User: Fold GNAT superfamily N-acetyltransferase from Streptosporangium brasiliense.
Amino acid sequence: MMRTQLAWAHHGPSPAVPGDGVEIRPARADDEERIRRFLAGLSPRTQTQRFFTRITRPSASLVRALLAVDERRDALLAVRGESVVGHAMSFKGDATDIEIALVVADEWQGRGVGSRLTRRLLRRASVGGARTLGMDVLGDNRKVLSMVRRAWPEATMRASGGAVQVTAAVDL
Assistant:
């Protein structure tokens, strides 16, 4: 399962909230430096909630993996000007149709950016036939687990090794 700090999303390139200047768009190969700066700017807590470890210097392979888009993977960015303020990705899963992962810059958390990223990611995945999703959330990430319960009240949550494995229906 992918590790995540989760929230929710919007369809098509559009402002995250009218007037805040945040656009949700597909990741591109030329986003490497922007995503590297984004990852380096995340607080240690946010890095750990998303990756289950700190990232002192994002590796080239991690950056490429976060931007990869192909028949099995999708990646979206929330950008404001030249800065990435959020990242969401999905990957064809084994036990579920897709696994998802998401992270939002500390200063943008709680402002709806994650919600729009997630909705957009799930809409794109459902067009491709995805009906179930999975994600791993750190057990102490109460904010995200609470959001999962609200968004997917029928989700299955199973604790394992300090993480909670979530399985839910893609319900749009």
